[in-house]
TrEMBL record, chain A:
<feature type="transmembrane region" description="Helical">
    <location>
        <begin position="193"/>
        <end position="215"/>
    </location>
</feature>
<keyword id="KW-0050">Antiport</keyword>
<dbReference type="Pfam" id="PF02254">
    <property type="entry name" value="TrkA_N"/>
</dbReference>
<dbReference type="InterPro" id="IPR036291">
    <property type="entry name" value="NAD(P)-bd_dom_sf"/>
</dbReference>
<dbReference type="Pfam" id="PF00999">
    <property type="entry name" value="Na_H_Exchanger"/>
</dbReference>
<feature type="transmembrane region" description="Helical">
    <location>
        <begin position="153"/>
        <end position="173"/>
    </location>
</feature>
<feature type="transmembrane region" description="Helical">
    <location>
        <begin position="6"/>
        <end position="25"/>
    </location>
</feature>
<keyword id="KW-0406">Ion transport</keyword>
<dbReference type="InterPro" id="IPR003148">
    <property type="entry name" value="RCK_N"/>
</dbReference>
UniProtKB/TrEMBL annotation, chain B:
<dbReference type="GO" id="GO:0009055">
    <property type="term" value="F:electron transfer activity"/>
</dbReference>
<dbReference type="InterPro" id="IPR003680">
    <property type="entry name" value="Flavodoxin_fold"/>
</dbReference>
<keyword id="KW-0560">Oxidoreductase</keyword>
<protein>
    <submittedName>
        <fullName>Glutathione-regulated potassium efflux system ancillary protein KefG</fullName>
    </submittedName>
</protein>
<dbReference type="GO" id="GO:0010181">
    <property type="term" value="F:FMN binding"/>
</dbReference>
<feature type="domain" description="Flavodoxin-like fold">
    <location>
        <begin position="3"/>
        <end position="167"/>
    </location>
</feature>
<dbReference type="Pfam" id="PF02525">
    <property type="entry name" value="Flavodoxin_2"/>
</dbReference>
<dbReference type="GO" id="GO:0003955">
    <property type="term" value="F:NAD(P)H dehydrogenase (quinone) activity"/>
</dbReference>
<dbReference type="InterPro" id="IPR046980">
    <property type="entry name" value="KefG/KefF"/>
</dbReference>
Length: 624, 180
């Protein structure tokens, strides 16, 4: 590809994505569908701007899947997996097993080829993590049983994809014979079987050991340079390095990067790695979906509309039935079951990965491949519509029982206090209240901290505390006071608006970073404002006075008096400030400081309490 | 060896004329311990456990303070309320302080004469000190006669120094008195 052609392709892909993804999101269809639609738009069916390069791009974009598995691995700490083991293994395992078995059997009835049927079973079994998780989160359904069980099932599917990727090449080897060389481009084939196994085990062990003893020190070293882009480069290097090694030994790069992710999930750099890889992963995955969209054979759909619709309906209905049955076995209520089974009954994006593989390896015939690509895309496109139906038609019938369930949960542990943000500030207040037997519900957006606090027996909700649904779930409607201890000043103002609007009876006590922040909070109508630096700087002042020889009690009283007047000055200045809010802030600050110091000069003598003053008495005594 | 604990309470010592000098004349002896309540507990958060231990380690308890409103500064009242616990200092099983002796060492603005019937304050300082005396009794402690500096508003530097000197002597005397 010469440079101009490359630039043109980049223009087409990025342009389509930038135009269609936001449109799709706005229409409530989610980003995955947006990318697919972008692919359809530039594909042969409509604008035909992709040409023959589509296949190449699909190849490059598959790297996005490798990165996705790395990120999934990063998010799967072994402990968290262990905690969810029952629903992951039980629900997820049974769902994948039954769905796989059912569709393998159905496929066998049609194609009469065991290898092809196995491949089809594997392609259909997983659901769409990207679409479902996003939708559940958007609708605030993650906390309810259906949401949590959906998450567990998706997690198991994500893991199950790895053995699937490992098994697929085996299906090819019997089918084509020559395909083997393609799957193992290295010189591994010259080795005997036991040596191959050794090399594979060695590679896996190597990744685990290197992740533990080599990569962490390396990350520490790189992080110490404080060069953001080098850290990003290191993160990319990690994933690409794993891919190269795994490909060299003939293993799935996806499996390797997943392992690498799990090994690093406990490291202190987890979040940095995640956020560095995230944009690359997102873009490459997007590219992947675009390529898939461009690859949908619309001619096929136009010529056989009934066949396609039949396949899609059959798949979705059967998947839903299996999900319902498995969920039933795990004693979920009917309302939860309908969310669970309709939410997960589409085919997931992994199908595209598997399908591109089956196409390369000639496992499936081109025709079946095309039918399946179309069926996967349509089933995914139907998911947002299904959720709409759930919302408007099905859930209202159960709606009441559903609500009662959630409310009962809240009443069980009704805490009078909600603490938003359990960082350095919030945890001090929270510990203090807990020590006094005051129960508090905690909102925090640090996943590690949330886990830890749950283990310690706190009632914690994970997420953005300014979100209405999270506040609702945390019991904002019943709580008396909300302590706003998050450190993001803008988020605090957002939260205040949300709470004023939806929970007018909830009292707010607000942390403020500094004086200016306190002004903003006053303007927002807050009465209880706590400047985080005030008490501690005054305590430093007290101790300084004591070290200089002032009496402890005098210093203490002086500080308390000073604070009282400072708060008073703050209120006065806030009133003045409103009138000329938009003047130069730096100058304003100096002017204000000047005014504050002037006010200090008008303070009463901080050390003098007239009750303890003798002078008047002495004067009087001398006159006697 | 008889050990003395001086519980000192003055909210504004930096302005004091008399007590600054009284403190200076306390003999520097290992048997005498000065315990400055306002300095130790500027936040009034009295460590009851520690205070009780201190009491147990001493034989004579001297409450040194200005005579505010015929009584004691706020922190000393707080100290009494919290440290002299029921079941420890008084009441059933409250015998921890048995055998100890309590004293007041106070400074009064008015002259000795003003604390006589017909005087400005009508009653004697001894009368005003009855709550202390009875507190000591309830806690199974003896109550020794107090050290009093009268007329502090009229005292000049020499007068204060003399008072301070006699405070030092008084502290030695009460040790002797207990020995007998």
């Amino acid at each position: 590809m010469d440079q101009q052609a490359f630039m043109f392709q980049a223009l087409v892909y990025l342009g389509a994505a930038v135009i269609l993804v936001p449109l799709a999101k706005r229409a409530g269809l989610g980003s995955v569908l947006g990318y697919l639609l972008a692919g359809v738009l530039i594909g042969p069916a409509l604008l035909n701007l992709v040409g023959h390069k589509g296949e190449d791009i699909l190849h490059v974009a598959e790297f996005g899947v490798v990165m996705m598995l790395f990120v999934i691995g990063l998010e799967l700490e072994p402990e968290r997996l262990w905690k969810l083991r029952k629903s992951i293994l039980g629900l997820g395992g049974l769902q994948v097993l039954f769905t796989f078995a059912a569709f393998t059997f159905l496929a066998w009835l049609v194609v009469k080829d065991i290898r092809m049927s196995l491949a089809i079973g594997m392609i259909i079994a997983p659901s769409s993590t990207a679409i479902v998780l996003q939708t559940l989160q958007e609708k605030g359904l993650m906390k309810i049983p259906a949401g949590q069980n959906s998450f567990a099932v998706l997690l198991f599917q994500d893991i199950a994809v790895i053995p699937m990727l490992a098994i697929l090449p085996l299906l090819a080897s019997g089918n084509g014979g020559a395909a083997d060389d393609h799957a193992h481009p290295s010189g591994m084939l010259s080795l005997p079987g036991w040596a191959q196994t050794l090399v594979v085990l060695g590679a896996v062990a190597g990744i685990i050991l290197a992740g533990r003893y080599l990569v962490r020190p390396l990350l520490r070293l790189v992080a110490a340079t404080r060069l953001r882009e080098i850290f990003t480069a290191t993160a990319l290097l990690l994933v690409i390095g794993i891919t190269v090694i795994m490909t060299a030994v003939g293993l799935s790069p996806a499996l390797g990067s997943f392992l690498g992710g799990v090994v690093l999930a406990n490291s202190e750099y987890r979040h940095e790695l995640e956020s560095d890889i995230e944009p690359f992963k997102g873009l490459l995955l997007g590219l992947f979906f675009i390529a898939v969209g461009a690859g949908i054979d619309f001619g096929l759909i136009r010529d056989n509309p009934l066949t396609i619709i039949g396949i899609v309906l059959l798949i979705m209905i059967l998947k839903a039935i299996i999900l319902w049955t498995v969920g039933r076995y795990f004693s979920m209520g009917k309302d939860q079951l309908s969310i669970f089974s309709l939410g997960l009954c589409q085919i997931g994006e992994f199908a595209f990965v598997l399908l591109s593989f089956t196409r390369q390896e000639n496992i499936l015939t081109g025709e079946i491949n095309n039918y399946l690509v179309a069926a996967v895309a349509i089933s995914m496109a139907l998911t947002p519509l299904l959720f709409l139906v759930l919302d408007k038609v099905i859930l209202p019938r159960f709606g009441e029982s559903d609500e009662k369930e959630i409310k009962a949960d809240a009443i069980n542990e009704k805490n009078p206090i909600i603490i938003a943000g359990f960082g350095h500030y919030g945890n001090t207040v929270g510990r203090f209240l807990r020590a006094n037997g005051v129960g508090a519900t905690i909102l925090d957006n640090d996943a590690d901290r949330v886990d830890f606090l749950r283990q310690m027996g706190f009632k914690v909700f994970y997420g953005d505390a300014s979100r209405y649904d999270l506040l609702e779930a945390a019991g904002a409607a019943e709580a008396k006071i909300l302590l706003m201890t998050i450190d993001d000043a803008e988020k605090r103002l957002e939260m205040i608006e949300t709470i004023k609007k939806h929970f007018p009876n909830l009292q707010m006590m607000v942390r403020s970073s500094n004086r200016n922040d306190a002004y903003d909070l006053m303007n927002a109508g807050m009465l209880h404002i706590y400047r985080e630096t005030l008490e501690s700087s005054l305590r430093m002042g007290i101790d300084t006075m004591r070290l200089l020889g002032f009496r402890a009690y005098a210093a203490q009283r002086a500080a308390l008096t000073f604070r009282k007047y400072d708060e008073r000055t703050l209120k006065q200045l806030s009133a003045i400030r409103d009138e000329r809010q938009y003047i130069n802030t730096a100058r304003q600050f100096i002017e204000e400081l000047e005014q504050i110091i002037r006010n200090d000069n008008r303070l009463p003598d901080l050390g003098a309490e007239r009750g303890w003053e003798e002078e008047g008495l002495i004067r009087e005594a001398s006159r006697e | 060896m008889t050990r003395i604990l001086i519980l000192f309470a003055h909210p504004a010592l930096e302005k004091s004329r008399v007590h600054k000098q009284l403190l200076r004349s306390i003999p520097a002896a290992p048997s005498i311990r000065l315990h400055d309540l306002y300095e130790q507990y500027p936040d009034f958060l009295i460590d009851v456990e520690r205070e009780q231990q201190l009491l147990l380690q001493h034989d004579l308890i001297v409450l040194q303070h200005p005579f505010y409103w015929y009584s004691m500064p706020a922190i000393l009242k707080q100290w009494m309320d919290l440290v002299l616990e029921h079941g420890w200092a008084y009441g059933t099983g409250g015998t921890a302080l048995k055998g100890k002796t309590m004293f007041n060492a106070i400074s009064c603005g008015g002259s000795e004469a003003s604390y006589l019937p017909g005087g400005r304050h009508e009653y004697s300082v001894d009368d005003f000190l009855i709550p202390f005396k009875q507190t000591a009794k309830l806690c199974h402690m003896g109550y020794g006669s107090p050290f009093i500096v009268y007329g502090t508003h009229k005292l000049d530097v020499t007068g204060i120094q003399e008072a301070a000197k006699s405070y030092g002597m008084w502290l030695s005397e009460i040790v002797e008195a207990v020995k007998i």
